[in-house]
Structure formats: C-alpha cells, structure tokens
Design a protein that fits this description.
This protein is α+β, with helices and mostly antiparallel strands. Helix content is 43%, strand content 24%. The protein has two domains: 8-97, GMP Synthetase, Chain A, domain 3 (2-Layer Sandwich); 103-169. A hairpin with a 2-residue loop joins strand 5 and strand 6.
Length: 184
C-alpha cells in the first residue's frame, strides 16, 4: 500500500524548518558578530556614534567622530577589531564619516582638490600637510590635519564647529574624484 503524502503537513514542516534555519542564522549574525563588533567600535577612543551594515563580502561602518579625533587611529582600531572577529579576511571594509560639514569647508576643499590629487598621483605625500597648512592659514579659524598609513591619506578639516573627514586611497581605483569623496 503506497503512502499518500498530505500537502498541508508537508508545507507546514517546510515553512517551520525555514523559519528555524533563517532565525538561527539571523540571531547568530546579530548576537555573535554584529553586536560584538558594534560594541567594540563604540569603545574606540574618538568614536562618538557608529552603525554597522554587513553583507556576505562587505562590512560598512558609518561613524560620527568626536572633535579632534585622529581618523587614522580610529580606522586602524576598526581594522584590528574586524580582523579579530572575522575569519574571512577577504571582506571589504567601507568606512564613511557622518560629518557636520559647512559650505565654507566645502568651498575651501574644492579649491584644494587639484593640488591634493596631483600630490597623491605623483606620490609626494609629504607635500600634503604643507599644502593644507599653507592654504588653511589664509582662512581664519580653519584647521586642516593630514595623517597617513600604508593604505590611505586621512584629512580632517575643522572650521567654526563644522568638520569634514576623508580617507583618500593611496592607490587610486579610478581616474578623477576619489570613490569615497562626495561631490555636491
């Protein structure tokens, strides 16, 4: 006598199994990966607020930094935390800054883009702090700081309570404006 499968119990079993599998995966991602990473990033000196968005091959951080925070130090600390939590070292890390930029900072930075791009293209990184200091001296109250590591040049601009932080890749991936630079 052949066994007759009833469709309703089969469908219910498949749905419950899928919910259990998806729920377990979601809980693992949230409680074992994302929450510890977010907590560690919040504990980094200079980070005022952080949000993390994770996909299979990328981790995106949206950061709001405290005044006078060292962008280079924050980025290095994030890279260290990321390497401790993920076995997959091939994940791309995308770090973005929530700045309180102003029209004055944007105007000043737009005048600097060509000089900075030229220095980076010619790999004359030591010229960048000099350029920033020379040009910022012309605007009372404006301060521009440059830092560097093996991957990026970090620039922070401060003016009357407004800030703009940038990570410029030392190996440009495209001709023109840097991929993380937002043109307004």
């Amino acid at each position: 006598m052949p066994m007759k499968l009833r469709p309703m119990p089969l469908i219910i079993t498949v749905v419950i199994s899928a919910l259990i599998l998806f729920g377990t995966w979601f809980a693992y991602q949230h409680f074992a990966v994302k929450s510890p990473l977010l907590e560690r990033v919040h504990n980094i000196d200079g980070v005022q607020h952080a949000e993390v968005e994770m996909t299979r091959d990328r981790v995106r951080f949206d950061l709001r930094l405290e005044d006078e925070a060292s962008v280079r130090t924050v980025v290095q600390a994030i890279r260290e935390q990321e390497s401790k939590l993920f076995q997959d070292k091939n994940k791309d890390i995308d770090i973005r800054f929530e700045d309180s930029t102003s029209e004055e900072i944007e105007k000043w930075w737009s005048t600097m883009l060509f000089s900075i791009a030229q220095s980076m293209d010619q790999q004359r990184y030591s010229e960048i702090p000099e350029l920033l200091n020379t040009e910022s001296a012309g605007v009372a109250g404006l301060e521009a700081i440059a830092e560097m590591d093996e991957h990026h040049v970090y620039i922070s601009i401060y003016y009357e309570g407004s800030t703009k932080h940038m990570m410029l890749p030392r190996k440009p991936s495209q001709l023109g404006v840097w991929p993380n630079e937002q043109v307004s």
